[in-house]
Design goal:
The chain is α/β, with parallel strands linked by helices. It is 11% helix and 28% strand. The protein has 8 helices and 37 strands. The longest helix is centred in the first third of the chain and has 14 residues. The N terminus is likely disordered.
Length: 496
């Protein structure tokens, strides 16, 4: 029988022999300020548009109800209100367009739960400021019910409870300001798991999770700049994602085919990117600065030595059997500067489909249709033995620059400045076939995870296998770990 490393190499070769799809163009946008820098547009009502009266609360709702699908509505400068009722809202029809003149504000008064609701498709919102709505936890203000193909451009969504925006299939959010919302800037969740082909481009996403949901509801996994749940294909490019009270970007549970490029991601309390039990990612040409300083210090202060990272891969990897534009988690050409740590690739040996340790309840991998199959005795044999686990596999980290100065980070106890590839010792549940060091050995030696050709500056440490094994660069590069071939350290040229 071929060793697992040889099998993975064969799978990779087969993947690369598949004819490539259309080339993905590099982003044409540059991250930078969007909030308070919206273009001057829609200064007068377009021909045929319905003008909304600022002096009449609820006028936007009434005129939307009275007009046919595909109507354009123009909101002049001033504050527009809905009915003073929690369920005062706007219910668009297919193809409706909402244009805000400079200074046009739709204000929820701390009363209305949502601004735009129900499931019309092809709705366009441009130039509005939408603020002070009070969506409940996990619900949103704009596109509350995740209608398909909404386009939200040059719009500010701020100071709301819950999520500023919910996502639907083929939604585009471009050159918008998503700031200081209570839970998320955007929540890409739909209960039927049909969100696909998102575009998030050229936005400023900042200061979200003002209600500190991870403290209010420990373990909820319900905070950050943008949260993705079971999204198939997302392009996230040219955004400035900063100062969120949690992760900047968090993809949680069976997401697939993400392209994250040319973003500036900085000063988020937790990870720049948390990619959790998900698949197939390209993360390239991004700049990451000062992420996870709050989360890293908090964990270190309680004596926890887990390597808190700026990019955290948790049970996530490449999977050739799940269709995508890549068959890897490919992390390259990024610059990391003074984050708490670098990249942590982790796999929880006790977290698998149908395990009580899986916090994504009632979910399974994309390779098993019926999660109840993942139980004893069948899980101990192929194919379930492999397919019931979300694997951190086929991860390539290469041609990145990692800069780290502990004095800039405020870390004095050696808990920061780590690069990590590790798992825990499997113990649970009693019928688990993944006990002991099995997953630790697999993630470090047998699952195609490789660092190579990176450039390091500063006193980096490396963690392999488990949290207690701290390595020097020379040890990280040597057998049995064999990582970071052709890497340079403080401009010492590599030997390849």
């Amino acid at each position: 029988m071929l060793p697992i490393r040889s099998i993975l190499a064969a799978v990779l070769l087969a993947a690369f022999l598949v004819p490539p799809g259309p080339a993905v163009a590099k982003a044409a946008v540059t991250p930078g300020p969007v909030c308070d820098h919206q273009p001057v547009a829609n200064t007068t009502a377009p021909a045929g548009a319905v003008t909304v009266d600022t002096a009449a609360p609820g006028d936007l709702y009434r005129k939307t109800q009275e007009s046919p699908p595909g109507t354009t509505f123009w909101l002049p400068p001033g504050t527009h209100l809905l009915a003073a009722d929690p369920f005062g809202q706007v219910i668009p029809k297919d193809g409706d367009v909402y244009l805000g003149a400079p200074g046009a504000i739709l204000d929820g008064q701390g009363i209305n739960r949502a601004a735009f609701t129900q499931q019309a498709k092809d709705v366009v919102i441009r130039g509005l400021t939408i603020q002070n709505f009070v969506a409940p936890q996990d619900q949103g203000v704009v596109n509350h019910d995740s209608g398909a193909h909404w386009i939200i451009e040059n719009t500010t969504v701020q100071n709301n409870k819950g999520a500023g925006i919910m996502a639907g299939a083929r939604q585009v959010v471009r050159h918008s300001c998503l700031r200081n919302n209570g839970q998320y800037g955007m929540n890409a969740y739909r209960s039927d798991s049909t969100i696909t082909a998102l575009i998030i481009e050229g936005n400023e996403i900042s200061g979200n999770n003002t209600d500190d949901w991870e403290t209010r509801s420990p373990g909820c996994g319900c905070s950050g700049g943008v949260k993705f749940w079971v999204v198939d294909k997302a392009d996230i490019r040219g955004n400035w994602i900063h100062h969120n009270h949690g992760a900047g970007l968090w993809a949680d549970t069976d997401n697939n085919d993400f392209l994250i490029e040319r973003n500036l991601i900085e000063d988020n309390d937790a990870e720049a990117l948390f990619y959790e039990i998900s698949y197939n990612l390209v993360f390239r040409d991004n700049v990451l600065r000062r992420n996870s300083l709050v989360a890293g210090k908090r964990r270190a202060d309680r004596g926890d030595n887990f390597p808190v990272a700026s990019v955290y891969l948790s049970e996530s990897g490449g999977e050739p059997r799940v269709p995508a534009r890549t068959h890897l988690v490919d992390i390259y050409d990024n610059t990391f500067e003074d984050n708490w740590s670098g990249i942590t690739a982790w796999e929880n040996a006790d977290r698998f489909c149908n395990s009580p340790a899986n916090t994504s309840i009632n979910t399974c991998t994309k390779l098993v249709a019926d999660r109840t199959q993942c139980s004893a005795p069948g899980i101990a044999s192929p194919p379930l033995y492999d397919d019931c686990r979300w694997k951190t596999q086929l991860v390539e980290v290469h041609d990145n620059t990692f800069r780290f100065d502990p004095t800039h980070v405020g870390c004095t106890n050696g808990s920061c400045g780590k690069m990590a590839l590790l798992a825990n010792y499997g113990t649970y549940p009693s019928w688990s076939p993944y006990k002991g060091t099995l997953v630790q050995d697999a993630i470090t030696h047998d699952q195609g995870n490789y660092w190579f050709s990176n450039s390091y500056y500063g006193p980096w440490k490396f963690v392999a296998g488990d949290t207690s094994r701290i390595l020097t660069a020379a040890q990280w590069q040597s057998t049995p770990w064999d990582q970071d071939n052709c890497a340079s350290f403080d401009d010492v040229m590599p030997h390849c």
